[in-house]
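Dear H.,

Thanks for agreeing to be a second pair of eyes. The structure we're designing against is below in token form, covering all 603 positions.
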């Protein structure tokens, strides 16, 4: 061990788990480049990693085909009372779940090394940061955690002799018997995969999967599921949100936090390059925001992560040039295709498909094969500090003050380009009823419509009705300092199935309207579903957008929305009497506004 560990609870826990899992060795991680390089070299030697000739200090991994995404069906929130987990979470009683998993953990690390990863979510020493320790038998996890969190001796020093940490136990669930050759991606069968959270104890146990969201326990498991429960108890917010700084030509800075379901444009928006002259943007975070009320009564946010774990397919110099520049070097790629020249490739990369490649399953691939060369949920893991648009304040320990919340989803019809909430409660209602067509980031049918409240359905660590109540309570505390709330839909299509809005950098035009709204510089049109831009309110200068497309983008079809109300009522009914009455009132008010369908009036 390269440093002294004074925390007796941590030492005892590591000894306990080593006794249970029976690893061949225990290694305390120091977070150094030497450690990263040494582990990566071991994985290259074993055939698990492949160095990329065309990208410095970058490697490609191919996972087992059963281990390619978050496994929501095998993800559990284990609380004493099932009602505290709520209807949107899978629940097993803590005693029962622990009994099952302890049997799986017994001897599960035989023949492998147990790595101890002390990590900080948030800048070390920030009053908003939290410390976790992940125990894992996966060197792939160690290297990813190096990128995604702050790892090492400084974290242990910050922890001190009696500091609190979140224990995160992970195993791939593949003990290695003497003389048996290892496979390139060891993992357990699907029926043995468990991603379990015990929010009453701030405890995470994961077994059987080596894939990112299931195995990098600082990410969704800690930073959202456990942190959301901690935030509820402690009076702050842990959200599935990007953080963006938008700077006007006059130098005015606006901070935006936005929630979209996975693979629905969060990273693209976080790294936006505005097309409007004079407007600039800086990236603060692309996936998770932790927020607390500051001394001045405003809401301040930090990005608890230190890297990006982004979806590769669809990322190109056309869609996200900043991301493409970010992944030029020092990157871990997972389930991408490998070209004959020694580079990675994926569908939607914006360059022609290679004549020949090795696909994500390790097979020869040619364009006429009829199936993707990269998995639709292929990923890149890259350090945030090498992002060209990263803000100089991305590690500010006090965070940045949030001016605007944005919710959204992927809807081909009905939902307008942008809607402003009437007030905070209505904004919470917009977040609580958010819906999107499913993507490859979660296992299951792609294209089905599902409610994804606040983009937190897979990540809320307690009863979501109580989570809605927490949002309402935070709004009450913030009062006039509360951020303004908007809802966007970049994905609306024409009746012929063509995109109506160009998206990407042009989304800055919508963001500019939001900024103008909070400055009181532009009006809006009152509709039954919220406040919408009038046709002349959006800055469309230099944009070739057909007038009929703009009309359709901002059209509110009251009949279609009336047909949506019963689905919203069904969505809310699952929460029973735990649904905050203020949310039920919002449904009634929406229905009443739709029935009235009065001519629009100026706001």
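And this is the sequence the design step returned. I haven't edited it by hand at all.
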């Amino acid at each position: 061990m390269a440093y002294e560990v004074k925390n007796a609870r941590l030492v005892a826990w590591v000894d306990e788990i080593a006794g249970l899992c029976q690893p061949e060795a225990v290694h305390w991680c120091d977070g150094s480049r030497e450690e990263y390089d040494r582990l990566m070299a071991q994985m290259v030697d074993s055939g698990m990693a492949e160095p990329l000739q065309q990208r410095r200090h970058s490697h490609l991994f191919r996972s087992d085909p059963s281990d390619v995404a978050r496994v929501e069906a095998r993800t559990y929130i284990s609380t004493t009372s099932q009602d505290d987990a709520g209807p949107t979470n899978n629940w097993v009683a803590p005693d029962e779940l622990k009994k099952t998993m302890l049997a799986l953990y017994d001897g599960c690390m035989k023949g492998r090394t147990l790595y101890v990863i002390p990590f900080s979510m948030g800048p070390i020493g920030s009053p908003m940061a939290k410390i976790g320790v992940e125990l894992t038998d996966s060197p792939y996890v160690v290297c990813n955690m190096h990128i995604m969190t702050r790892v090492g001796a400084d974290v242990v020093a910050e922890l001190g002799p009696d500091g609190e940490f979140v224990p995160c136990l992970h195993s791939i669930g593949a003990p290695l018997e003497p003389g048996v050759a290892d496979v390139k991606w060891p993992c357990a069968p699907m029926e043995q995969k468990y991603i379990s959270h015990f929010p009453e104890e701030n405890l995470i146990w994961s077994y059987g999967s080596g894939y990112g969201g299931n195995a990098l326990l600082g990410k969704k498991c800690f930073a959202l599921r456990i942190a959301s429960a901690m935030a509820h108890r402690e009076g702050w917010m842990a959200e599935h949100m990007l953080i963006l700084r938008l700077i006007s030509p006059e130098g005015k800075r606006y901070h935006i936090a936005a929630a979209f379901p996975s693979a629905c444009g969060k990273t693209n928006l976080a790294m936006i390059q505005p097309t409007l002259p004079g407007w600039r943007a800086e990236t603060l975070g692309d996936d998770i925001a932790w927020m607390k009320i500051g001394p001045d009564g405003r809401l301040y946010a930090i990005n608890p992560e230190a890297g990006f774990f982004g979806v590769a397919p669809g990322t190109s110099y056309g869609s996200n040039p900043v991301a493409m520049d970010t992944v030029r070097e020092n990157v871990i790629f997972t389930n991408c295709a490998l070209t004959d020249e020694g580079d990675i490739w994926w569908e939607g990369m914006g360059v022609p498909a290679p004549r020949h490649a090795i696909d994500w399953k390790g097979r020869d691939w040619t364009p006429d094969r009829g199936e993707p060369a990269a998995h639709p949920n292929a990923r890149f893991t890259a350090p945030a500090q090498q992002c060209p648009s990263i803000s100089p304040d991305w590690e500010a320990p006090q965070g940045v003050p949030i001016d605007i919340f944005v919710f959204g989803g992927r809807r081909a019809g009905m939902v307008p380009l942008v809607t402003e909430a009437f007030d905070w409660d209505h904004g919470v209602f917009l977040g609580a009823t958010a819906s999107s067509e499913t993507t490859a980031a979660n296992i299951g049918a792609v294209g089905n419509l599902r409610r994804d409240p606040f983009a937190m359905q897979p990540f809320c660590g307690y009863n979501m009705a109580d989570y809605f109540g927490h949002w309402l309570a935070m709004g009450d505390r913030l009062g006039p300092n509360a951020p303004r709330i908007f809802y966007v839909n970049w994905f609306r299509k024409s009746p012929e199935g063509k995109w109506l809005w160009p998206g990407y950098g042009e989304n800055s035009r919508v963001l500019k309207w939001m900024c103008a709204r909070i400055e009181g510089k532009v009006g809006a049109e009152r509709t039954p579903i919220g406040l919408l831009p009038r046709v002349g309110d959006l800055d469309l200068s230099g944009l070739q957008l057909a007038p009929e497309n703009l009309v359709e983008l901002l059209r509110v079809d009251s009949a279609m929305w009336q047909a949506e109300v019963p689905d919203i009522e069904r969505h809310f009914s699952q929460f029973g009497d735990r649904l905050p009455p203020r949310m039920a009132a919002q449904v009634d008010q929406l229905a009443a506004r739709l029935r009235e369908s009065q001519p629009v009036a100026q706001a």
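Two observations from my side: The chain has a mean pLDDT of 95. The CA atoms of residues 356 and 366 lie 5 Å apart.

Warmly,
E.
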